[in-house]
Design brief:
5 helices; alpha+beta; Sufe protein. Chain: A; 3-stranded antiparallel β-sheet
Length: 149
């Protein structure tokens, strides 16, 4: 089924089968929960931010292959970034999966995230791919944690 092959490229399947940073982080400086009521995806995102830099990121959760792979890749990508840099990646990822934006990948988007470009052809899956990123965005803009870029 070519459409399924397009929706689930090898990188997404690999991160789903073997998610990176899949654990509750002891000593996280902040955490946030995300939930997609459309399909039941759930996650908790954990960050350790020191000196304005995301030193570590992890997640726990359950859901479809796309939501879990997206969270796995997010935890890899944001480590070592400032809150502002992480927010820029969030914005670029949102444009990547949005069918309303023009085709193409932002030059600033980490290459491993290009696997999600096909999601734009499956609008029902945008919420799955974006769950972790929306959770990060809300975490970065939370008035309580002082992390806003």
């Amino acid at each position: 089924m070519p459409e399924l092959d397009e929706l689930y490229p090898a990188a997404i399947l690999e991160h789903h089968k073997r998610p990176h940073n899949f654990h509750a982080m002891e000593g996280a400086t902040c955490q946030a929960d995300g939930y997609n009521p459309l399909c039941g995806d759930r996650l908790t995102l954990y960050l350790d931010i020191q000196g304005g830099v995301i030193r570590d990121a992890s997640f726990r959760g359950s859901g479809c292959a796309i939501s879990q792979a997206s969270a796995s890749m997010l935890t890899d990508v944001v480590q070592g970034k400032t809150a502002g840099e992480a927010e820029n990646v969030c914005d670029s990822f949102g444009r990547l999966i949005d069918p309303e934006t023009g085709p193409g990948i932002d030059r600033g988007l980490p290459s491993q995230l290009a696997a999600f470009a096909s999601v734009r052809r499956f609008p029902a899956r945008m919420a799955c791919a974006g769950l972790a990123w929306q959770t990060l965005h809300l975490m970065l803009h939370s008035a309580d944690d002082g992390l806003a870029p």
